[in-house]
């Protein structure tokens, strides 16, 4: 460099002034006369040497009326080596068009100021020792009140000895800056050939104008800093020196920012062995046409203590990253050592679409950086043939470091048409967490939010996925998932919302919408827990909310803390029912527990809630703590029942979990059911329900079990019902613990209730087809419409506990409280009255005076005409007592009917009572106790 300088100094003294003037005009670099010591331009072949100018301290000032460089030309600022800043202004009205090389001596920073605009053509290049600032500002400020202005040119003040600290825009609309440079720029620190505008490694390259347009050009500041910024109105942009490099530190809050764009395979890169940052401050920012903004640790570079710089994108309106190959990323490259930097996006609207990607990742020995997005609206849409549109923070295959966290803060988030937001690990490093805070979240189509381990050989733990929102909608085959394909544990999925809806399936392949944590096939790590806290949760049209294992690891637990839960319908493509489940479909992993807490639970049209196993692990428990539970209907396609269940599948070896329901009201109807069952080798779980009332209306509570010979004397499901008020069965409903299979014992049924009523061929059965029946214990105050039978009838409501033979029948015990006979006796008055004066003749049978009626109210059944004779007591036996007494029936009620006095006075009855054996007695008015609730009256009809 010193030799070149001496050569050009020699040329200065040998060229005449006439030639200088002519050649200066040809070079389109024309000094003006505003400086005390004006700038000089000397032409030597294709090189223009700029000397002279005014020096103030370590600052050198140049002023030109025109400044442009043609192709293949070089402009050398021939400054002294002690100069720190070269500040060049253009005071004329022409745009600076740079198609050649700009060069300076030493390590001086170079400022090019032209309020008319600056264009860097495809052959433009830089060879300067310091930072480069190109701006269409009107002036540069020094200190608090000194300026070097291009629009109001004056000689620089003697006070301009300090570094520039601000750029001043006085124009209503500032002129643009454009870069299309693809000139050769040497090799980057990783040894790859690069092109475009390049400053020395570790230095800054700032383009600050009105609009800043990178059109097919490239900008390089490896290990340094690139800033693209500007104003579209009057205002001030502050400059700050950081480690001998310039950066923009602040903008006037009232000033309107200008647009910045990168198009047509443009590239901005600062990748090095450490450091390297990029900042964009704009109104609108667009990265399109396979353009790239990249930072991080380059291939094979870095050390354990190095950290890459950050990428910060700020836009007051919109940031758009569009098209396949369009990226904004901060990476630790393969074989690199050191930690990656962060990517921060602040804007009103963020749109990433058509295969574009924004993210952080690590392929090397360092940790990946964080990705943080803050916007009112975030939209990720579509995919290309090769790439999904995505926001990501990833730990890639062969990486040792951990992935960074991904955080989205938005008013609304839309992810659709194959796009995804992910925090994944593919290697040994831990995946970062994914957190979304947004008022409205819509995940649509083959799209998703993921925190996963995506490689079977990977060992890194997956980060957690947390969603905080008012409304979360996952539909048309979309996925929100935390999962693992490898040995690492899956992350937890936590959803906090007002409304959560998971609906439907993908219209292309029928894949169901899912909200899930999973251990995938071949994985050995455990799945994470899934927790939903919301006001409403709706799972519809074949969608699924689940925690499952398909490998050797265990399923996570599923916790639903929701006021209103609805699980309904089926997938229109393959009739898959809507599900809320934990399950094991793998080899040895256990299914997790499922807990639902809320006010209302509705399961209808084939919807299913439960825990199940289909492999070697055990099933989880299902616990429902809900005020009102309704289980109704079946799948409209295949007829599968709506249900609550814990189960084991065929060929499974593990035991099923227990099912517990704590509710005020439970309704099971229209073929639906509550099931605990085992179809494999393991034991079925137990069903226990604690409720104020249970209504089965063509519904089932089932502990049915099947088995094979290899598991003799298998213990089966027990059903225990604690019902405070009423247990009602109607329209063919069933409570059953039937067992099928050799040596399989029927389960026990325990019922404790105030009133048990069953009608229309509704049964309670604990039968075993091939072995011993279970036991039935009923403790109730009132029993209606059902009785014990050795063999069930097809037209009556029955209680049975049959086995393969009579000797193998189970025991049936029905207990009702003891009744004190004296409660039905009332002492007669000693003051006798004339009975004929106390009896109304209006109810005389056959009277022609009035058309009278005699109505008995109380238990079910048609009233008997008073003109008919009294019937045998067996007529009423179906209400309260059983025919006969089988050997295995133990009844605790042994009280005798109330005594009737000899030769009683005949008084017209006004009520009736029933003794403990079901006998009905008509009683006189003074014998009607306040406790007797069965009465009748006569009504006159004229």
Structure characterization notes:
With 942 residues, the chain is an all-beta fold. The protein has a domain at 29-251: Pectate Lyase C-like. The chain has 3 helices and 72 strands. The strands form 8 sheets. The chain has a 33-stranded mixed β-sheet that branches. The protein has a 21-stranded parallel β-sheet, with no helix packed on it.
- Characterize the main sheet: 33 strands, mixed
CATH-defined topology of the domain at 29-251: Pectate Lyase C-like
Structural class: mainly beta
Please work out how many helical segments DSSP would assign: 3
The CATH homologous superfamily of the domain at 29-251 is named: Single-stranded right-handed beta-helix, Pectin lyase-like
- Find the count of extended strands (DSSP E, 2+ residues): 72
> How helix-rich are the residues, as a percent range?
under 10%
Q: Based on the coordinates given, report the CATH architecture of the domain at 29-251.
A: 3 Solenoid
Q: Terminal Cα separation, in Å?
A: 130 Å
Task: Report the uncertain regions.
Answer: 1-27, 819-826, 857-863, 872-904, 928-942
Mean pLDDT, to the nearest integer, reads 83
Principal-axes geometry comes out as elongated
Radius of gyration: 44 Å
CATH class of the domain at 29-251: Mainly Beta
Query: What portion of residues belong to β-strands?
Result: over 45%
InterPro entries: FhaB/CdiA-like_TPS (IPR008638), Pectin_lyas_fold (IPR012334), Pectin_lyase_fold/virulence (IPR011050)
Protein name: Filamentous haemagglutinin FhaB/tRNA nuclease CdiA-like TPS domain-containing protein
Keywords: Signal
Domain Filamentous haemagglutinin FhaB/tRNA nuclease CdiA-like TPS: 30-143
């Amino acid at each position: 460099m010193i030799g070149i300088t001496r050569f050009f100094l020699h040329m200065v003294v040998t060229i005449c002034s006439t030639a200088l003037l002519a050649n200066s005009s040809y070079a389109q670099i024309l000094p003006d006369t505003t400086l005390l010591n004006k700038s000089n331009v000397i032409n030597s072949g294709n090189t223009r040497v700029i000397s002279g100018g005014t020096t103030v301290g370590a600052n050198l000032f140049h002023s030109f009326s025109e400044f442009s460089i043609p192709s293949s030309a070089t402009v050398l600022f021939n400054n002294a080596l002690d100069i720190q800043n070269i500040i060049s202004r253009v005071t004329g009205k022409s745009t600076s068009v740079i198609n050649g090389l700009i060069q300076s001596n030493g390590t001086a920073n170079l400022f090019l100021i032209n309020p008319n605009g600056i264009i860097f053509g495809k052959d433009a290049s830089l060879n300067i020792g310091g930072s480069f600032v190109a701006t269409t500002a009107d002036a540069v400020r020094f200190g608090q009140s000194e300026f070097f202005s291009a629009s109001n040119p004056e000689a620089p003040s003697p006070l301009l000895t300090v570094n520039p600290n601000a750029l001043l825009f006085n124009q209503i609309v500032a002129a643009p800056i454009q870069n299309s440079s693809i000139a050769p720029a040497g090799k980057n620190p990783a040894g790859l050939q690069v092109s475009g505008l390049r400053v020395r490694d570790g230095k800054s390259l700032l383009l600050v104008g009105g609009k800043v347009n990178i059109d097919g050009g490239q900008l390089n500041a490896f290990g340094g800093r690139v800033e693209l910024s500007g104003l579209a109105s009057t205002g001030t942009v502050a400059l700050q020196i950081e480690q001998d490099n310039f950066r923009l530190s602040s903008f006037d809050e009232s000033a309107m920012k200008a647009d910045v764009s990168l198009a047509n395979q443009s590239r901005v890169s600062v990748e090095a062995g450490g450091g390297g940052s990029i900042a964009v401050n704009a109104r609108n920012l667009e990265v399109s046409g396979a353009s790239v903004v990249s930072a991080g640790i380059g291939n094979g570079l870095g050390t354990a203590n190095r950290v890459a710089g950050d990428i910060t994108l700020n836009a007051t309106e919109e940031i758009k990253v569009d098209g396949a190959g369009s990226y904004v990323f901060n990476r630790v490259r393969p074989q690199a050592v050191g930690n990656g930097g962060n990517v921060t996006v602040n804007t009103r609207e963020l749109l990433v679409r058509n295969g574009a990607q924004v993210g952080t990742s690590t392929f090397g020995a360092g940790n990946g950086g964080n990705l943080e997005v803050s916007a009112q609206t975030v939209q990720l849409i579509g995919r290309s043939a090769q790439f999904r549109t995505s926001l990501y923070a990833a730990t890639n295959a062969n990486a040792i470091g951990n992935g960074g966290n991904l955080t989205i803060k938005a008013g609304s988030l839309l992810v659709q048409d194959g796009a995804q937001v992910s925090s994944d690990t593919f290697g040994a490093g831990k995946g970062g967490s994914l957190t979304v805070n947004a008022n409205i979240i819509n995940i649509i189509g083959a799209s998703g939010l993921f925190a996963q381990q995506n490689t079977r050989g990977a060992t890194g733990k997956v980060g957690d996925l947390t969603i905080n929102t008012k409304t979360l909608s996952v539909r048309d085959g979309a996925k929100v998932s935390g999962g693992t394909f490898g040995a690492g544990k899956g992350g937890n999925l936590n959803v906090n919302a007002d409304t959560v809806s998971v609906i439907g399936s993908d219209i292309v392949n029928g894949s169901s919408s899912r909200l899930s944590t999973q251990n995938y096939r071949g994985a050995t790590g455990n799945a994470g827990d899934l927790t939903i806290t919301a006001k409403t949760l709706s799972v519809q049209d074949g969608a699924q909310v689940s925690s499952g294992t398909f490998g050797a690891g265990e399923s996570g637990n599923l916790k639903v803390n929701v006021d209103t839960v609805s699980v309904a319908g089926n997938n229109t493509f393959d009739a898959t029912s809507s599900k809320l489940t934990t399950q094991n479909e793998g080899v040895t992993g256990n299914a997790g527990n499922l807990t639902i807490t809320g006010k209302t639970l509705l399961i209808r049209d084939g919807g299913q809630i439960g825990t199940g196993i289909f492999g070697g692990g055990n099933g989880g428990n299902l616990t429902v703590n809900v005020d009102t539970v309704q289980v109704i209907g079946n799948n409209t396609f295949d007829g599968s029942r709506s249900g609550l269940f814990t189960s084991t599948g065929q060929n499974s070896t593990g035991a099923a979990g227990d099912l517990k329901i704590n509710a005020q009201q439970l309704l099971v109807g229209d073929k639906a059911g509550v099931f605990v069952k085992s179809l494999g080798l393991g034991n079925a779980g137990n069903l226990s329900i604690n409720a104020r009332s249970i209504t089965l209306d063509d519904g089932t509570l089932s502990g049915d079990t099947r088995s094979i010979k290899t598991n003799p004397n298998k213990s089966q499901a027990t059903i225990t019902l604690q019902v405070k008020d009423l247990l009602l069965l109607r329209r063919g409903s069933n409570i059953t613990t039937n067992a099928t299979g050799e040596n399989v014992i029927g389960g026990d049924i325990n019922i404790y209730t105030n009133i048990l009523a069953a009608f229309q061929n509704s049964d309670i059965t604990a039968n075993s087809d091939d072995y011993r029946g279970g036991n039935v214990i009923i403790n109730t105050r009132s029993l209606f419409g059902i009785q014990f039978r050795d063999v069930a009838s097809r037209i009556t409501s029955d209680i049975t506990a049959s086995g393969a033979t009579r000797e193998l029948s189970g025991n049936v015990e029905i207990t009702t409280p003891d009744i004190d006979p004296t409660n039905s006796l009332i002492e007669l008055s000693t003051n006798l009255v004339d009975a004929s004066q106390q009896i109304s003749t209006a109810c005389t049978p056959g009277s022609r005076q009035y058309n009278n009626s005699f109505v008995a109210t109380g238990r079910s059944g048609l009233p008997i005409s008073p003109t008919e004779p009294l019937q045998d007591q067996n007529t009423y036996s179906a209400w309260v007592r059983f025919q006969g007494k089988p050997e295995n029936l133990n009844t605790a009620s042994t009280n005798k009917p109330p005594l009737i006095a000899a030769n009683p006075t005949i008084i017209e009855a006004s009520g009736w009572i029933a003794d403990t054996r079901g006998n009905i007695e008509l009683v006189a008015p003074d014998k009607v106790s306040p406790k007797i609730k069965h009465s009748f009256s006569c009504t006159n009809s004229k």
